[in-house]
């Protein structure tokens, strides 16, 4: 039978779709090591690691070189400083990652700034010159990108100005990424800080995701070629009414089932400051309780929930690298198990 030639555009969207599917394939997930320099320095300062360029490079080097990470991690999100760096022998980080079978990605927003006229709310910047930066990153070997919108909860916030401005920026970013052949990871984070209840987080997350998908539609973004990176639906950190793991799982997935189109290949959570164990347990509960009922892959794209224990063990000392790598590998393994609904507390005792 004669095969029809595909147009360039169709081939491009096929490549995007393939990459997006690969990101969530085989129960793997993303490891975000894309902290900006100030954020990475802040994490170092909290535990007394000197905040130097060389320490940031050394930190990323041992993470990237953790033996066997590719068993559980499909892609890594890098930061502009990191994507240009090399290991101690001069081999480019991005090549080391690709050689391990891990897809390299890049954070491309330039941070969340105060939203003028809206105290306590933020707008993510970075659209100016983005087309050129995406072209450069793509030339370096990146295959996906990330942009994070931040939504704070509190008295009278978020307002629609903040939600709409961030949703539109996310959609414009996503369209530019797809034009450049990069899969956009669309990150909309409703922050955990505050007294809000589980129900209020669910309501806000629903409103934010509705706005985001509306804007993605308006900007002509191909949903088959994106990954959504949302928060889990959880009560605020100082809300007196705590939620069980199952309550979080139900509130989160029920929200997504109503708002996230089935065309989206994958949803990869941010951890948002939850402990590694809690993040794994909640992801696991979602897989168990909604097995066979979700049209998209439900995965992870954690920074702190994978890195934090390993960073503390490393503490800036070369001698601690093997133990730190073991801790990193362990958290990646736990999240891979959680994707299969096979995570259990006993896995934590094994490492202890
Ligand atoms: P956390 O998992 O630490 O919330 O970070 C997620 C993130 O957006 C980094 O890309």
Overall description:
The chain has an 8-stranded parallel beta barrel with strand order 1-2-3-6-7-8-9-10, surrounded by 8 helices. The protein has a two-stranded antiparallel sheet with strand order 4-5. The model has no long low-confidence stretch (mean pLDDT 96). It is built from 13 helices and 10 strands. The protein is 47% helix and 14% strand. The N and C termini lie far apart (60 Å). It has helices spanning 8-23, 37-46, 53-64, 80-83, 93-99, 130-140, 160-179, 198-218, 245-259, 276-289, 304-314, 321-339, 346-351; strands at 29-32, 73-78, 103-107, 112-114, 122-124, 144-151, 183-190, 227-230, 266-269, 297-302. The protein is α/β, with parallel strands linked by helices and 352 residues long. The protein has one domain: TIM Barrel, CATH 3.20.20.70. 1,3-dihydroxyacetonephosphate binds at residues 32, 34, 77, 146, 148, 187, 270-272, 302-305.
Q: What's the short version?
A:
This protein is 47% helix and 14% strand.
């Amino acid at each position: 039978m004669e095969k029809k030639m595909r147009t360039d555009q169709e081939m491009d969207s096929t490549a995007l779709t393939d990459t997006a599917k690969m990101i969530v394939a085989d129960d793997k997930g993303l490891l975000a090591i894309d902290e900006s320099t100030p954020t990475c320095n802040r994490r170092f300062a909290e535990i007394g690691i000197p905040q130097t360029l060389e320490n940031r490079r050394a930190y990323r080097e041992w993470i990237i070189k953790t033996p066997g990470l590719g068993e559980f991690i499909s892609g890594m999100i890098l930061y502009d400083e990191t994507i240009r760096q090399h290991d101690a022998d001069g081999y480019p980080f991005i090549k080391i990652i690709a050689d391990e079978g891990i897809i390299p990605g890049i954070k491309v927003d330039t941070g969340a700034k105060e939203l003028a006229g809206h105290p306590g709310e933020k707008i993510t910047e970075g659209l100016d010159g983005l087309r050129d930066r995406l072209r450069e990153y793509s030339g370096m070997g990146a295959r996906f990108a990330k942009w994070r919108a931040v939504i704070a909860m509190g008295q009278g916030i978020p307002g629609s100005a903040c939600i709409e401005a961030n949703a539109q920026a996310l959609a414009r970013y996503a369209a530019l990424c797809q034009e450049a052949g990069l899969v956009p990871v669309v990150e909309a984070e409703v922050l955990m800080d505050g007294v809000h209840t589980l129900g209020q987080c669910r309501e806000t997350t629903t409103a934010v995701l509705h706005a985001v998908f509306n804007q993605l539609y308006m900007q002509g973004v191909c949903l088959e070629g994106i990954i959504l990176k949302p928060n889990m639906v959880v009560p605020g950190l100082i809300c007196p009414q705590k939620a069980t793991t199952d309550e979080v799982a139900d509130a989160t997935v029920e929200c997504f089932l109503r708002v996230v189109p089935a065309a989206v290949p994958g949803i990869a959570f941010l951890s948002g400051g939850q402990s590694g164990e809690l993040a794994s347990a909640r992801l696991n509960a979602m897989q168990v309780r909604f097995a066979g009922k979700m049209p998209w892959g439900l995965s992870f794209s954690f920074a702190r929930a994978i890195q934090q224990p390993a960073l503390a063990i490393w503490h800036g000392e070369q001698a601690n690298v093997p133990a730190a790598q073991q801790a990193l590998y362990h958290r990646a393994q736990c999240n891979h198990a959680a994707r299969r609904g096979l995570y259990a507390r006993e896995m934590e005792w094994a490492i202890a």
